[in-house]
Specification:
- The chain is an alpha/beta fold.
- It folds into two domains: about 5-65, no CATH class; about 70-240, P-loop containing nucleotide triphosphate hydrolases (Rossmann fold), CATH 3.40.50.
- Helix content is about 55%, strand content about 10%.
- The chain contains twelve helices and five strands.
- The protein has helices at about 5-15, 15-35, 35-65, 85-90, 95-100, 115-125, 135-145, 150-160, 175-190, 205-210, 215-225, 240; strands spanning about 100-105, 130-135, 165-170, 195-200, 230.
- A five-stranded parallel β-sheet has the order 2-3-4-1-5.
- Strand 3 (about 165-170), helix 9 and strand 4 (about 195-200) form a beta-alpha-beta unit.
- Helix 3 (about 35-65) packs antiparallel against helix 6 (about 115-125) and helix 7 (about 135-145) packs across helix 8.
- The longest helix is centred in the first third of the chain and has 28 residues, at about 35-65.
- It is elongated and about 70 Å long.
Length: about 250
C-alpha cells in the first residue's frame, strides 16, 4: 500500500472524507505554491470544513421538505401585492429571525404566500439556521402520530429544536377540537424560542370558526402575533394568470 492509499484509508476510517477527496489536489497546490507544512495542513482542514458544511446543508434541505421551487431569486415581484422590494430585502437579511419574530402572510389563494414563505425558509437554511417547511396538515398528522410512529417522533424532535418553522395554509380547513389543542400546545411550547412563518387565507377573526373555539383561537393568536409582522398580500392569482391549456391557444 502506497502513502496515498494509506492516507485515504485513514481519512475514511476517521470519517474525514472531505479531506480524502481533495488530498491529491491539495498536495499539488502545496507543491506549486511552496506552502509551509502548517499552510498545507490548514488547507486540508479548510477542505474538510467546507465539505461538512455542504453536507449539513444538504441534509437540512432534505429534512426541510421544501416545495420544488423555493428560490427567492426567482420570486416575481409585483407592486400590487403590497410587498415592496425594500421589505423583501429586509426579510431576506434574517435579522427578524435572530430576534425571534414571526411573519404572517395573509391573502387570497395564488398571490405567492407559499412560494415566498418557502423562499425565506430556504434562505434561512443557506445562512445556517435550522428551518423546516410543513403544511398545517403535516403538523397535525405529526402531532397525532408522534407517540405511535418513530418517523413522526423524529420529526417532532427536529421541529422542537428549530430556529424557524413555516406552517403553510393554516386554518384552510376546520380543525377538530383534539387536533386544535395539540396545535396550541405545540406552538405554546415553542413560540418563545422559535420563529414561525404562517401562510393563511383566513383573517384572524375567522380562526375561531375554523377551530370552533374562540378561547383557543384567541390564545393561539396571542402567541403567534405577540412578536409578529403581518403582511397582507393582494392581487391576481399567479396560477390563474399563467394557466396552461392542452390546446396551446
Amino acid at each position: 500500500m502506497n502513502q496515498k492509499q494509506q492516507i485515504d484509508q485513514y481519512c475514511r476510517q476517521y470519517k474525514i472524507t472531505g479531506m480524502a477527496t481533495k488530498i491529491e489536489q491539495t498536495v499539488k497546490k502545496a507543491e506549486s505554491e511552496q506552502l509551509s507544512y502548517l499552510g498545507f495542513l490548514l488547507q486540508l482542514f479548510e477542505q474538510e470544513s467546507l465539505h461538512r458544511e455542504l453536507q449539513a446543508k444538504e441534509r437540512m434541505l432534505k429534512t426541510a421538505q421544501l416545495p420544488a421551487k423555493s428560490n427567492l431569486d426567482q420570486y416575481e415581484h409585483r407592486d400590487e401585492t403590497g410587498l415592496t422590494l425594500q421589505k423583501i430585502n429586509t426579510l431576506r437579511e434574517m435579522d427578524w429571525l435572530d430576534q425571534i419574530y414571526n411573519i404572517m402572510l395573509l391573502g387570497p389563494s395564488g398571490v405567492g404566500k407559499s412560494f415566498f414563505a418557502a423562499g425565506l425558509c430556504a434562505q434561512a437554511i443557506d445562512k445556517g439556521y435550522k428551518a423546516y417547511f410543513r403544511t398545517m396538515d403535516d403538523i397535525l398528522n405529526m402531532l397525532r402520530m408522534k407517540d405511535f410512529a418513530r418517523a413522526a417522533m423524529a420529526d417532532y424532535k427536529r421541529l422542537t429544536k428549530a430556529n424557524l418553522i413555516v406552517i403553510d395554509d393554516i386554518m384552510l380547513f376546520p380543525v377538530e377540537k383534539s387536533q386544535a389543542v395539540n396545535l396550541f400546545n405545540f406552538i405554546n411550547q415553542l413560540y418563545e424560542n422559535t420563529s414561525f412563518i404562517i401562510t393563511t387565507n383566513k383573517m384572524p377573526a375567522d380562526w375561531a370558526k375554523m377551530l370552533d373555539d374562540e378561547v383557543l383561537a384567541t390564545a393561539l393568536l396571542d402567541r403567534l402575533l405577540f412578536r409578529c409582522e403581518v403582511i397582507n398580500l393582494a392581487g391576481k392569482s399567479y396560477r390563474m394568470e399563467n394557466r396552461k391549456t392542452i390546446f396551446g391557444t
